[in-house]
């Protein structure tokens, strides 16, 4: 039954994909709790002339004449855990997952992704690409461990996206011998005598992946640089990261002729301290010239306005949401609807605050929420039971899809304003001149809204706990 439902879902998604409707009509795609609607086309509605709306006539106002940041993409993380889980599944299920994530017609069209340099918590064990403390020139550097699962998995995604996938990489920890605590886990800091070697490490990683046919679009300096974790971690104060970027990593990337094609991002930690870290580094001209933008997570508070503050202070720099997930893992939680709403809310706020790209954490996890070598088990939009081969789709998969499928790379955010506190929304003008408006209702009540554009409105009935994407062509 689940397999049949998924095939039906793919047919529905495919039928709703990018049909450019006449300027007088609008297609509505819906996902709603308590229904079978999952990225389901509800047909088209007509626009009618209304002019000034009444206060009782709730509208989401859209103005395509005002454009803002360019959209790069939405996706998830190619971790060891995701790749190992993927290859434990039968071939037909692997094909299902690749289609579900990376096919823009039959799936949700991911075009962005993340991976890790060395191991992370979502690896089956800790490892580094160099183990010899005397090898400061990294002559023994090897990504052989990645060739078993992770690299083949990434290649499948690249193939399905016709090489449209943009991938960035983040280190969780340098090799143990480079750190003050002689351990990849439990924090510690980078030893000053290894600053140059560690900067070269990033270059070696990019070159090794390029040799495998995988281009690296971007880098973050360090995953969660202010957290001493029981898994792979490394601590950088603002002064540490500024020094490393300005005097070591930036110059090494420049010397290797990787800038500006490779986008360097700082911070890669929670929104709460994001402005402080961005301000500390981007205010320094010598460091800022190497930095494309700021990456951030969601694990401590929402703090959405902190991202807006970064854009206000540094409008020429990029912003990327680089990690977020739901936890803890349980089969009961896999069924919970509110996790999808958390994703929808965060994506709308982050996009409306000038974020260019948005990245979920693990693409897939197994029946335990792993594998994970420190038992830091989490949820993922797709959970695969490797014991039975069954694949389970969380509400988050569909909520993310309302953005990733219909807002395409190169789109520009446009003005979008909701009359109701109960309806949040964002809107983008795609390269093909289609307009995608995504609106979400997290309340327990149905809400009637109207999409207003150029003095005309089209009605949308938003069910309780639902998300809709409305597709129309740009008026001529």
What do you see in this structure?
The chain has 476 residues and is an alpha/beta fold. It folds into two domains: 2-69 and 412-473, Sandwich (Immunoglobulin-like); 72-404, TIM Barrel (Alpha-Beta Barrel), CATH 3.20.20.80. The chain has helices spanning 2-15, 80-87, 91-102, 150-160, 195-211, 238-255, 274-282, 285-288, 304-313, 331-334, 338-352, 395-404; strands at residues 25-32, 40-46, 48-49, 59-70, 73-77, 112-117, 166-171, 218-220, 263-270, 293-297, 318-323, 357-362, 364-365, 382-385, 390-393, 412-418, 423-429, 434-441, 447-453, 456-462, 466-473. The strands form three sheets. A ten-stranded mixed β-sheet has the order 2-1-21-18-17-16-4-19-20-3, with helices on one face. The chain has an eight-stranded parallel β-barrel with strand order 5-6-7-8-9-10-11-12, surrounded by four helices. Strands 13-14-15 form a three-stranded mixed β-sheet. The longest helix has 18 residues, at 238-255. It starts with a helix and ends with a strand.
Topology:
Blueprint: H1 2-15, E1 25-32, E2 40-46, E3 48-49, E4 59-70, E5 73-77, H2 80-87, H3 91-102, E6 112-117, H4 150-160, E7 166-171, H5 195-211, E8 218-220, H6 238-255, E9 263-270, H7 274-282, H8 285-288, E10 293-297, H9 304-313, E11 318-323, H10 331-334, H11 338-352, E12 357-362, E13 364-365, E14 382-385, E15 390-393, H12 395-404, E16 412-418, E17 423-429, E18 434-441, E19 447-453, E20 456-462, E21 466-473
Parallel strand pairs: 4-19, 5-6, 5-12, 6-7, 7-8, 8-9, 9-10, 10-11, 11-12, 13-14
Antiparallel strand pairs: 1-2, 1-21, 3-20, 4-16, 14-15, 16-17, 17-18, 18-21, 19-20
Helix pairs in contact: 2-4, 5-6, 6-7, 7-9, 11-12
């Amino acid at each position: 039954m689940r397999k049949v439902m998924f095939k039906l879902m793919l047919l529905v998604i495919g039928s709703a994909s990018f049909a450019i409707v006449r300027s007088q009509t609008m297609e509505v795609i819906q996902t709603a709790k308590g229904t079978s609607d999952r990225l389901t086309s509800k047909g088209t509605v007509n626009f009618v002339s209304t002019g000034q709306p009444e206060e009782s006539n709730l509208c989401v106002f859209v103005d395509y004449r005002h454009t803002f940041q360019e959209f790069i993409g939405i996706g998830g993380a190619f971790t060891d855990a995701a790749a190992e889980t993927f290859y434990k599944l039968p071939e037909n299920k692997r094909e299902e997952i690749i289609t579900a994530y990376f096919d823009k017609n039959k799936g949700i069209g991911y075009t962005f992704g993340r991976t890790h340099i060395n191991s992370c918590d979502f690896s089956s064990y800790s490892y580094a690409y160099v183990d010899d403390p005397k090898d400061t020139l990294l002559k023994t550097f090897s990504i052989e461990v990645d060739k078993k699962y992770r690299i083949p998995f990434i290649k499948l995604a690249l193939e399905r996206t016709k090489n449209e996938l943009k991938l960035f990489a983040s280190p969780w920890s340098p090799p143990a011998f480079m750190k003050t605590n002689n351990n990849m886990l439990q924090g510690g800091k980078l030893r000053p005598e290894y600053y140059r070697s560690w900067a070269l490490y990033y270059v070696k990683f990019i070159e090794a992946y390029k040799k495998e046919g995988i281009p690296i679009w971007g880098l973050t300096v360090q995953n969660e640089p202010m957290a001493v974790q029981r898994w792979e971690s490394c601590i950088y104060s603002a002064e540490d990261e500024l020094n490393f970027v300005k005097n070591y990593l930036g110059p090494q990337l420049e010397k290797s002729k990787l800038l500006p094609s490779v986008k360097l991002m700082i911070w890669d930690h929670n929104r709460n301290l994001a402005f402080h870290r961005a301000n500390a580094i981007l205010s320094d001209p010598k460091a800022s010239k190497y930095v494309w933008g700021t990456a951030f997570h969601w694990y401590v508070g929402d703090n959405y306005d902190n991202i807006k503050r970064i854009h206000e202070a540094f409008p020429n720099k990029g912003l990327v949401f680089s990690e977020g997930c739901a936890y803890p893992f349980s089969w009961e939680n896999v069924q919970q609807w509110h996790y999808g709403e958390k994703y929808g809310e965060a994506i709308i706020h982050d996009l409306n605050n000038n974020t260019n790209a948005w990245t979920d954490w693990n693409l897939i996890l197994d029946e335990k929420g792993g594998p994970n070598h420190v038992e830091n088990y989490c949820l993922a939009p797709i959970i695969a039971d490797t014991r039975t081969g069954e694949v389970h789709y969380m509400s988050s998969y569909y909520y993310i899809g309302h953005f990733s499928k219909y807002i395409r790379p190169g789109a520009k955010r446009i003005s979008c304003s909701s009359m109701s506190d109960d309806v949040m929304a964002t809107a983008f003008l795609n390269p093909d001149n289609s307009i995608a408006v995504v609106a979400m209702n997290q309340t327990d009540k149905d809400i009637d809204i109207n999409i207003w554009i150029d003095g005309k409105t089209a009605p949308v009935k938003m069910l309780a706990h639902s998300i809709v994407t409305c597709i129309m062509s740009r008026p001529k």
